[in-house]
């Protein structure tokens, strides 16, 4: 399903291929559409606020083949600037056939399209980390990071989000995490030997809240397009499925669902990766 947004004035149009790896709560689906459609509208807002404004075009494909989805062909990405992999209730460290097929597709894209950008949210963040040789699994304490959370920014993170603030606030919904960030050495030839994989943020629960490779990759463990109803519904889905058994923790997290978050700023950082990138970023955050 392709969706388009163009500002009233002439603008660059960014083309993003959204790989949907889960479906939202039925009430959210009825009100807002699929995760890809929700992200499309979120990126449209960030694009309209960009200076100069950026148009956004997305293609959305549900890729969970065991639930009736399909895996795109490599050539379907030819006209796109980059992709985004959504969050999912599946484990990014699992070996479901569709997950292994998706990893193979990502590897081929990474190898054959050096100009292509890769972004991922939650499950997508973890899967792209796995692609590059990072380790992914349940948190060492087996607990969840839920609800509205402050993420401490590294100097790289402050540059990415164009802020001097020490942290950004986003909604979390995960038990698995990236346990060790990938490096050029673990990437098995997918990165140059001198490439650096930056961690842009961390929290007490999760040391790797997001990854950044200039001109190539941006990921976030936290969600950028959740609103109050979505947070509450996604938490309830995980409680009902038995994934979350700490009901007090779930209730406390649901009580933070109404709080404002920095999801539009995260979307803006992704658009900047697709539109242009700051090659001057170095380890200490200075040019």
Automatic annotation (TrEMBL):
Coiled-coil blocks: none
Organism, scientific name: Neonectria magnoliae
Cleavable signal peptide: none
Top-level taxon in the UniProt lineage: Eukaryota
Name this protein carries in UniProt: Glutamine amidotransferase domain-containing protein
InterPro entries: ChyE-like, Class_I_gatase-like, GATASE
Pfam families hit by this protein: GATase
Domain Glutamine amidotransferase residues, every copy: 78-223
